[in-house]
Amino acid sequence: MNFTERGFGPRGAVGCSDRGHTAIAQLKPGDIDWAQLFEREGARVLHTGGVFTALSATTPEVARVAIQAARRSGSLVSYDLNYRDSLWRSIGGRARAREVNRSLLSEVDVLFGNEEDFSAALGFELSGVDEQFKSLPMASFRRMIDSVVGAYPNLKSVATTLRTARSASVNGWGAIAYHSGSFYEVPQREVEIFDRVGGGDSFASGFLYGLIADKDPQWALECGVAHGALAMTTPGDTTMASLAEVERLMKGSSARIER
């Protein structure tokens, strides 16, 4: 369970993770037949990350076994850094998070994270920003991502959202991605927020959809941004947007009623 106070105007959103006894935390290597999933059933993407690996002493090794199985089958391996201080605090904090993430990234294809994740969960600092992240210059992200790819040359893609908060109700929302040696950008524009939870996950799923649908990287990035924006217009962290809605927003559709 994850409890969230949405926030409004000057009152920021507040999240509280209650995951101490979640069933998935009890997984151990060998509990799941990964070969069945990837080799026989043909799962095309494995997506995991920092929330799962923080749940228990066994989940980092479960993630490693799953990643290795996905790679053997040729499936895409995606990892979201997703640093949550409340999950890591009692098991070693940032130092442990960095240790776990660094141990897994050498076998990852696509990496997601925001400006705070790369610093807290991986140890790569973003220069030219203040503590409140009121400004997120593209050049700083390019330099940071270059450093990440230099340390982990196996990465095919690195994508990060660009979010600035004028208030809890109105955010600047955009993204930047590296893919196979080139950078792609979607400049920030203001979006109105109903419930910000799930925006990052929906960005990741939209970007991944573009990759596995053989779209070009710019299309994939725009898909991620549009999907994330739509997810933040509905309650909860599960998207309610259809592909058709995402594509209409990518084309600049208005908010007029559709009948």
H-E string: EEHEHHEHHEHHEEEHHH
Task: Name the CATH architecture of one domain.
Answer: 3-Layer(aba) Sandwich
Assign a percent range to the helix content. 25-40%
CATH homologous group name of one domain: Ribokinase
Number of strands: 8
Class from secondary-structure proportions: alpha/beta
Strand content: 15-25%
Number of helices: 10
* Overall spatial form: globular
First-residue to last-residue Cα separation = 36 Å
Mean pLDDT: 91
Radius of gyration: 18 Å
Summarize the SSE layout with pairings.
Layout: E1 2-5, E2 14-17, H1 34-40, E3 45-49, H2 50-53, H3 59-73, E4 76-80, H4 85-88, H5 93-104, E5 110-112, H6 115-122, H7 138-151, E6 157-165, E7 170-179, E8 182-192, H8 199-212, H9 217-231, H10 243-250
Parallel strand pairs: 3-4, 4-5, 5-6
Antiparallel strand pairs: 1-2, 6-7, 7-8
